[in-house]
Write a structure and sequence with these properties.
Length: 311
């Protein structure tokens, strides 16, 4: 790739999808397994680009499993196991390796699954590729496609905490948000309950920031969204730490929040609320992605955490 031809991760995925004959843009691949679907996802993490310098090896291991389980959650599935391929750098001593693999095992066990196996090799930079598998009933599987005009836009949990943790670390500020950044919590229980509620029409995880998540949902479902700024569940204490404007920026574009963003049929809202805690943050419209405050709308730019390839 020549200089000046850098390409964003999502544009690259579209290009590759065309080469492969069309790959659906979803959190997991969906494979027919009889009366259920097998869902499968994989994520590659690198020490320089994905692991903050403050992160210890146990947290690196936890993160590598958590990012994959979050994709399983977004499909409404139950995890069946995780495979790990780890490229270990020359400086990795036995303590580092023990802590890293303990992080893998502890995260998997915490969410009711296990490490099935994988591969280890030497590499110039710590590189971890996780592959998570899960099962979901065919009638319950949740996809990014399916949102319809008039549906309600919702999220689990609170938003912006991981971005706040990154900001605090970079600024040398002590904050509990740093734990949110280093030890993410995939919403497997919530994803499964929402699938069983049968109220959700489309869903994905929000690990790359709300702006990019809405862009992805918009593209696949061919709809738009209006987000009510006052309704956003900004992580408590974030505004006090960085101010309202910066907090909103972190919610929309920082990434690292492993919450679920989803759309719900209006008559299914109570069923969804019984499934898990949620916040209605907007609605589905015909086109565009908008932020509304005081009756006035402005377009949302699709920014978030995204790798870039090339120079």
């Amino acid at each position: 790739m020549t200089q000046g031809n850098a390409i964003g991760e999502r544009d690259l995925i579209r290009r590759i999808s065309e080469i492969l004959g069309g790959v659906e843009n979803d959190d997991c691949a969906v494979i027919d397994a009889g009366d259920r679907y097998l869902v499968a996802t994989t994520d590659m993490l690198h020490q320089k680009t994905d692991f903050p310098g403050i992160m210890n090896p146990w947290q690196m291991g936890w993160m590598a499993v958590a990012v994959n389980l979050s994709d399983i959650a977004a499909m409404g599935a139950e995890p069946a196991g995780v495979l790990i391929a780890a490229g270990l750098p020359p400086e990795a001593d036995l303590y580092f390796i023990d802590e890293l693999f303990s992080g893998f095992a502890d995260c998997a066990a915490f969410y009711g699954t296990r490490i099935l196996g994988g591969d280890t090799d030497s590499h110039q930079e710590l590189t971890i590729t996780g592959t998570a598998l899960g099962f979901v009933e065919k009638e319950l599987v949740l996809r990014r496609r399916g949102a319809r005009v008039g549906d309600l836009l919702c999220t689990t949990g609170v938003l912006g905490g991981a971005g706040g943790g990154l900001w605090a670390w970079q600024q040398g500020v002590e904050s509990e948000f740093i734990t949110s950044l280093l030890e993410p919590e995939p919403r497997l229980k919530e994803g499964r309950a929402l699938a069983k509620s049968r109220a959700v029409t489309a869903m994905m995880d929000n690990s790359d920031g709300l702006g990019l998540s809405l862009s992805d949902l918009s593209e696949v479902s061919r709809v738009g969204f209006v987000v009510q700024e006052e309704a956003l569940p900004i992580a408590p204490g974030l505004v006090e730490m960085v101010g309202q404007e910066k907090a909103l920026e972190l919610v929309m574009s920082a990434g690292g929040d492993f919450e679920l963003v989803f759309t719900v049929k209006p008559d299914g809202l109570e069923a969804a609320r019984r499934a898990c805690g949620l916040t209605v943050i907007g609605e589905v419209v015909e086109e565009g992605i908008w932020m509304e405050k005081g009756g006035e709308r402005r377009r949302i730019e699709a920014k978030g955490y995204e790798h870039r390839i090339g120079k």
